[in-house]
Amino acid sequence: MDAEQFAKYLELVDHPAQLTLMPDVTSLYIIYREHVTRFPYQNLHLYLGKPLPDLSVSSLLETLPIQGGHCFQQSELMFAVLKYVGFQVERVAAWVLMGNQYQEGMPLNHNILLVKIGEDTYLCDPGLASASPRFPIKLNMESTEEVTISEGDMYKLEVEEKFYQLHWMMKGSYLLMYRFVRSTSTGLAEISDRESTLELCKNVYNGPGFIPIRDKYVKVALQTHDSKIDFFFVDGSYSLKIFTKGRPREEKSLDYKQFFQMVKEMCNLEFESVEIVRK
User: Fold this and answer.
1) Which of 61-70, 98-107, 121-130 has the lowest mean pLDDT?
2) Residue pair 97/105 in contact by the 8 Å Cβ criterion
3) Residues 228, 246: contact at Cβ < 8 Å?
């Protein structure tokens, strides 16, 4: 990311011109919140078999505002922004589980970001649809801990010798969200580079195995100042859920025309209004 691209990003997220961003905790929270409330998540293109997206900064600045994007698109743009501002940030590949148990041989299918500020580590995940945390999560990364980041958003990081698992409190019990590798040599999360991230994204599009965001369901999601908007298609059914501070506020079934009309109205994304084929 260069200065011109950074300026364009700030314009896209409507960042105050007189508020300078620095590699500190306050700026991290500002960047994260501006991003997740501006750029919608969507995996419709992946589900429909559209071509592999360009993950260059220039392309992401053009496509995310009008098309939204999935985890690799969201995290790569946020990574570039954080690097430009001067943060110490790393990519980490993960297995999305969403209540399922990890099985040996499962394909990696997600990327998160870990940001180091002083002695503190913050997990940032802008690309998990409505399950994305509302704010960065400050974690010690050395022992299992529970963390409440805001009303209705409580997490548990399970720390084992060879892996981490992040859980999210839902309806009074923890939901296992995803797992990522802990290096036995460093005791820290195993990081990914740009090349491995591009290969991982390619495998999500074209690789073998069952990948839910490609093979099972469609999600379109956006956060607001206090809520999460979640459009969902699975097994021929369309729905909308809105959560406010961790609690369901609205839930309704939709037909496909309502689905795409409301996606346009609430997420500012315009797709062709046609029935999605059930896989």
Assistant:
1) 98-107
2) no
3) no
pTM of model > 0.90: yes
Please choose, from the candidates 230, 238, 236, the residue with its C-alpha nearest in 3D space to the C-alpha of residue 257: 238
SS3 content of the chain, % helix, strand, coil (to 5): 30, 35, 35
- Angle at which helix 57-67 crosses helix 71-85, to 10 degrees, equals 130
Q: CA-CA distance, 257 to 75, in Å (whole number)? A: 30
Q: What is the pLDDT of residues 33-80, one digit of tens each?
A: 999 999 999 999 999 999 999 999 999 999 999 999 999 999 999 999
Q: Which parts of 86-239 fold into alpha helices (H)?
A: 194-206, 212-215
141 vs 189: CA distance, rounded Å: 8
Question: 171-190, pLDDT tens digit by residue?
Answer: 889 999 999 999 999 999 99
Q: Catalogue the E-assigned strands of 160-268.
A: 163-170, 173-181, 217-223, 227-234, 237-244, 247-254
